[in-house]
Amino acid sequence: MYFSLPYYRDAGQLPGPLPDQNEIERATRTLPKRSDYGGRLVVIRDKYVVKYGPLVTENEGYTLCFLEKRLNIPAPRLYAMYRDHDIVYIVMEYIPSISLGIAWPSLTEANKHSIARQLRYIFDQMRALSSPGFYGSVNRGPVPHRYFFSREKDPAITGPFQTEEEFGKAIALRSKTMWSESNGHSFLSDYLGRHLPLALRNHPPVLTHGDLSRENVLVRKVINSVTNEEEYKVAALVDWEAAGWYPSHWEYSHIFPLLQWIDDWPAYVEKILDPLPLEGAMMRVVFSDLEF
């Protein structure tokens, strides 16, 4: 889904007047942010969340609109998106909740299984969407992930790509470019160039969030109307900045190198997403090279 900026949702669909620049800049209630985009994530009047910064891109806004149009999953609604002095501002729905990361230590096994089932249903819906036949953003643009960044905007690195082999070659080329820019050389980068495009194949493009972590899952307590017991409901999946059409292994394999293995969360990830240990191991190699 593509639209030109500025974008403003119809006033009749808003929970109140949109915040102006002064209100946004003066906001004191901030939310923790997973990635460093040089800006802030602020709550305004318990109605809006505004994400802005020099490295914020439009992709998250486009993705939220795409989700609202194509799926029925818990995600914030986009209310506005615009640029001011070359800074992107994304104004989203505020959803009262806490992060799963905060809630996890106090959850019962029954709570954890319930949340995992809810997340499994969400990701199954996403993955069931018809493949668009390319790898890239939801608006058919470049792959919205830092592994595909190119200062020269080289399409061989940025995409979008028609084949998974091109997708793999792009990662290897990005690695080679990064090492070249730092006046270094990586033999591991050479290895990726020789083997990555063929090691990861036969994975069709599927709609992918791209950063499944407990911090990006919001939950809230509810009372079961049948048992009258307290339960947790997934309120929203947030932080869609890197979402797009990726190879079907990416949702799992991309987070595999980040799993800490200090509690039971990795085991529950396997209930949410089909585990792909071989693809995960290959992406750990990619991670060790590109995250130097």
Description:
Pfam families: APH (PF01636). The chain is α+β, with helices and mostly antiparallel strands and 292 residues long. It folds into two domains: 7-93, Phosphorylase Kinase, domain 1 (2-Layer Sandwich), CATH 3.30.200; 98-291, Alpha-Beta Complex (Aminoglycoside 3'-phosphotransferase, Chain: A, domain 2). It is 35% helix and 18% strand. It has ten helices and ten strands. The longest helix is centred in the middle third of the chain and has 20 residues, at 109-128. The protein is globular and about 55 Å long. The protein starts with 6 loop residues before the first strand and ends with a helix. The model has no long low-confidence stretch (mean pLDDT 95).
Number of strands: 10
Strand content: 15-25%
Rounded to the nearest angstrom, the radius of gyration is 20 Å
Number of H- or I-type helical stretches? 10
Distance between the termini: 35 Å
Question: What would CATH call the architecture of the largest domain?
Answer: Alpha-Beta Complex
Gross morphology is: globular
- The parts where pLDDT drops under 50 for at least 5 residues are none
Helices and strands: which structural class?
A: alpha+beta
Q: Write the element-wise H/E pattern from the N-terminal end onward.
A: EHEEHEEEHHHHHEEEEHHH
Largest sheet: 5 strands, antiparallel
CATH class placement of the largest domain: Alpha Beta
Any key phrases for this structure?
292 residues; alpha+beta; Phosphorylase Kinase, domain 1; Aminoglycoside 3'-phosphotransferase, Chain: A, domain 2; 5-stranded antiparallel beta sheet; 3-stranded antiparallel beta sheet; 10 helices; AGP_Transferase
